[in-house]
Structures are given as C-alpha cells and as structure tokens.
C-alpha cells in the first residue's frame, strides 16, 4: 500500500505543466474502435484509467503500442465485442465503449458498470440514446446484450446534459447511417476534443461545445494523429493547492477559459489571478476569504470535479462558504477527513457549509475517491505538520505523478 507523506506549510512557487485530460482521452480511446485505420494519440497521461482502457482495447483484439505519452491503436484486427466484468469493475466509465463497439461490430456485450463511489451513476440516458439510434438492448440480471445492425440516425434529446451519454451517442451516431441531432448535449471541453478527434478520422460532426450536436453518420473513417487537450481539473488542483499553501505558481497547458468559474472563485477568495491563452498565474499571500455560494453545474458552470479541492483550500481562512453539489449525490466523502484536520464543515444533503479556521493540522487521512484524494493533498499542503494520505489508487486514476508536479513547485510531498 502506498501513501503520500506531506509536510504542510511550505508555500508553492514556480511553473508546472498539466498533462493530458483523463476525461478526454478515455472516450477518444473508445472512438479508436470505430475505424480500421491506425490512430496515433499524443499527450496520453499515464493513469490507471488509461491502462484499463488499453486492457479493454487489447481484449477486443486491437493492437496497442505505447511509447512515453503516445499510444498507437490499430483496431483493424478487432475480434471481440464484449468487455469482461473485471474491466467493467475497474473503470466505471468503460460504459463509453458500448457505443463504439456497437457502432463498429453491430453487437456488444458488457456487465453493468455497477456502483460508484460518488453514489448511484445510472446509465439510462446512454441506453435511451442508443435505443433511439436503433439498438436493441436486452438488460439481463448480469448485464447488457446489445444488437445494432442497421443503426439509423435520428433526433434525440437528453433529459440531462450527461457527459457520458453525449459521448456514447456521438460514437454510435458516427457509425449510424444518416443524420443524428443530439439536443441538450453536454458542452464540456472534452466533448469538443472528442469531436476534433472524430473529425480527424474523417467523421462529419459539428456543434460540440453547444447544446446541439449534428452528425452525418455512415461516412467511412480512416486513421489519424491527434493530441489530447490538457486536463483542466489537474490545473484546478494545482491552483487550489497554491491557494491553500500560499505562494505564486504558473500553470501551463490549460485553456484559461475552461477554468473561468474556478479562477473567479479563487479571485473572490483573495488570490491574485492572471490568465491568458494556455497560462494561468495565481498568487496567494493572505488567509483566504469566504466566497458566495459555489454551486456545481454542467459546463460552463462550476465543475463538480473541482469542488473537493476548492473546499479543501477554503477550509483554512476567514469567512464562510456554502457549497451546493448538484451533480453527484455522494461527493462529500472528503469532508470527514478534512474535519479530522480541524476543518469546520457541516453537511446537509447536497449542501456543505465551510467556516474557515485559522489553521489545519496534519493527520492520517484516507482518500475515498479520486477528487476527494486530491482535496486531501491540497488541505495537507496548507496544514501545519505532517499528513499521511492513503487510498492513492483513487488518485492514480486521474493524476500522473501529482507528487512530482507539486515537488517541482517546492512542496514537501513524497510517495512511500
Ligand atoms: C463525467 C466525468 C466526471 C465528471 C462528470 C460531470 C468522465 C470519464 N467523467 O462523468 O469526471 O464528474 O462527467 O462533469 O468524463 N445521469 C443519469 N443517467 C445517465 C447518465 C447520467 O441520471 O444515464 C446523471 C448522473 O447520475 C449525474 C448526472 O447525470 O447526476 C451527470 O452525469 P454525467 O455527466 O453522465 O457524468 P459522467 O459522464 O459519468
């Protein structure tokens, strides 16, 4: 079992580059299945979720090679249409393979993605979108059996702008014949990145980034070379870490517009923030102030994935901040651990009220989920004394060498 040992109270200074986005690379790897051509994907982060995706691709019969941050996927030799239960359990977002397998093979078999540490994460919208495109889906006690010969484009409306359901619908619609219009689509930057990748392969798709995505499906796809966008949540984590620990950091790689809601809150909390193109600078040299209520929402609202690290930063400071978590039910699992460090947080349902305290103290902490783990690191960097953080298997799903990145900024953190 590995752990981070963090000596808090050391300001962060310097420049750090952000690695490729987990939430972008996962659907892109699934999309590689749609083409018999070779796909070369640059800026792939070394994450356990990426490793799980590679395992799925290989199980399906794809050839995958890896050199540093570049993955080459050749799905010409695709020979299976199922995702084994073991791999479904390892990564909940493996459901994103459903639309791609169905689109390429006309048949897909997988178990249910199952429970999730963030509360129930249903896939009803994914299945409704695929059914609208002509898939016949049988839900058995063990999982899903889908058939999709003759998939046909259609107009479909998502009742919630779900990121995963939008991506699954895009992947299936690219393979379906005719026009598909996805209304109330998710507008996240990662959806735009997926569209850019599909266009690289020759797909006729437009509208990503807005609520209406239009796909002229059935166009034969070829291979292509692509570079994955930078991870905006990793960037948000570095910024909140600097806000918590104090200092002056420059975060490179992320389009500053993708994080405008996060940087606006950090500025309101008293940090000095300067942003341009792919560079965000933050300096913090005074106790953080409480801010107006932070409500998580689909993009371009405040990202749910940035809620835990921001909360961790605002635990130390003056004033009170109310958080309202509108996306996931069980997204306050970091709160008990922060409380053990001396934070004053009360949770009622979807609302958490954080009263800033003058100091947090280091403690033995356990990460229960990915962004909750990042939150504990942020809090520990701003706390007095030593913290030991376990549960790093969650952190490794979404952060490549988080401790190394923080050490390059002067943090005293090591992995043992
Ligand atoms: C993606 C991100 C995750 C992020 C989330 C919200 C990936 C791999 N993960 O997750 O990091 O926190 O977006 O920005 O990209 N829902 C349904 N039925 C469905 C699908 C979703 O009710 O069929 C609900 C969910 O329970 C949730 C909401 O819709 O309350 C949004 O979920 P969704 O956007 O689908 O998140 P994910 O794609 O799972």
Average residue-wise pLDDT: 96
Number of strands: 26
Principal-axes geometry comes out as: elongated
Sheet with most strands: strand arrangement: 24-25-1-26
Distinct ligand kinds: uridine-diphosphate-N-acetylglucosamine
Spatial gap, N to C terminus: 9 Å
Q: What share of residues are in beta strands?
A: 25-35%
- Rg, rounded, reads 21 Å
Class computed from helices, strands and strand pairing: alpha/beta
Main sheet overview: 4 strands, mixed
Individual helix count:
14
Any low-confidence stretches, pLDDT <50, length ≥5? none
Helix percent band: 25-40%
Walkthrough of the structure:
It is built from 14 helices and 26 strands. It is an alpha/beta fold and 416 residues long. It starts with a strand and ends with a strand. The strands form 7 sheets. A 4-stranded mixed beta sheet has the order 24-25-1-26. Strands 2-15-17-16 form a 4-stranded mixed beta sheet, with helices on one face. The longest helix is centred in the middle third of the chain and has 14 residues, at 232-245. The mean pLDDT is 96. β10, α6 and β11 (178-183) form a beta-alpha-beta unit. The relative contact order is 0.15. Uridine-diphosphate-N-acetylglucosamine binds at residues 23, 26, 93, 121-126, 160, 162-165, 186, 304-305, 327-328.
């Amino acid at each position: 079992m590995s752990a981070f040992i963090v000596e808090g109270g050391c300001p962060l200074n310097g420049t750090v580059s952000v690695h490729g986005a987990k939430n972008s690379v996962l659907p892109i790897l699934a999309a590689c299945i749609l083409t018999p051509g070779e796909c070369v994907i640059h800026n792939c982060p070394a994450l356990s979720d990426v490793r799980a995706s590679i395992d799925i691709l290989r199980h399906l019969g794809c050839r995958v090679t890896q050199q540093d941050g570049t993955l080459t996927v050749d799905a010409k030799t695709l020979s299976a249409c199922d995702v084994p239960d073991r791999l479904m359990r390892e990564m909940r977002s493996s459901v994103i393979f459903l639309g791609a397998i169905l689109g390429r093979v006309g048949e897909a078999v997988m178990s249910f993605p199952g429970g999730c540490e963030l509360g129930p994460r249903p896939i009803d919208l994914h299945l409704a979108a695929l059914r609208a495109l002509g898939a016949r889906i049988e839900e058995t006690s063990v999982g899903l059996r889908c058939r999709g010969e003759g998939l046909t484009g259609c107009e479909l409306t998502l009742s919630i702008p779900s990121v995963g359901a939008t991506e699954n619908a895009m992947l299936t619609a690219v393979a379906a014949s005719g026009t598909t219009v996805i209304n109330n689509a998710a507008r996240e930057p990662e959806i735009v990145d997926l569209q850019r990748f599909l266009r690289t392969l020759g797909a006729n798709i437009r509208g990503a980034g807005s609520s209406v995505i239009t796909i002229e499906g059935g166009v034969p796809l070829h291979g292509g070379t692509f570079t994955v966008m930078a991870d905006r949540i990793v960037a948000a984590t570095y910024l909140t870490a600097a806000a918590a620990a104090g200092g002056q950091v420059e975060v490179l790689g992320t389009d500053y517009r993708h994080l405008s809601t996060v940087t606006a809150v950090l500025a309101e909390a008293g940090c000095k923030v300067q942003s341009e193109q792919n560079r965000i600078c933050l300096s913090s040299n005074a106790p953080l102030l409480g801010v107006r209520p932070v409500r998580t929402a689909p993009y371009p609202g405040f990202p749910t994935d940035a809620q835990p690290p921001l909360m961790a930063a605002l635990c130390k400071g003056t004033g009170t901040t109310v958080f309202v978590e509108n996306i996931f039910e069980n997204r306050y699992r970091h709160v008990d651990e922060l409380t053990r460090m001396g934070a004053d947080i009360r949770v009622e349902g979807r609302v958490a009220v954080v009263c800033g305290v003058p100091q947090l103290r280091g403690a033995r902490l356990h990460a229960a989920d990915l962004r909750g783990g990042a939150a504990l690191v942020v809090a520990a960097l701003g706390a007095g004394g030593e913290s030991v953080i376990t549960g790093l298997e969650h952190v490794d799903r979404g952060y490549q060498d988080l401790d190394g990145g923080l050490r390059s900024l002067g943090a005293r953190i090591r992995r043992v």
